[in-house]
Write a structure and sequence with these properties.
single chain; alpha+beta; 3 helices; 39% helix
Length: 90
């Protein structure tokens, strides 16, 4: 979920004044958990640093960890929380 208070502190420590903070709650939707892993792993440098066994272990672990988010139509909807901060340097 992220630590909103700590993030606000870091922004303040950087010399900015937070003028607004908003939290958005939604879901990231994928056709399957395998697709989620493929997108998340293959779009980062991680894919160049792991072997096939590690990649398949990530998929297996993700299937176990995210099984509760599988939707009835075969897809998966993983809860996603994002915090947006607006700040000024005044």
């Amino acid at each position: 979920m992220g630590d909103v208070d700590r993030t606000r502190e870091l922004i303040t420590e950087a010399g900015l004044t937070v003028t607004e903070a908003t939290t958005h709650i939604g879901a990231a939707r994928f056709d399957s958990i395998d697709e989620l892993v493929k997108i998340e792993v293959e779009s980062t440098p991680l894919i160049d640093r792991i072997d096939d066994a590690s990649y398949h272990a990530i998929i297996a672990d993700a299937c176990e960890a995210l099984s509760e988010f599988e939707a009835g139509e075969g897809g998966v909807a993983v809860p996603n929380v994002g915090h947006i901060f607006a700040a000024t340097n005044r």
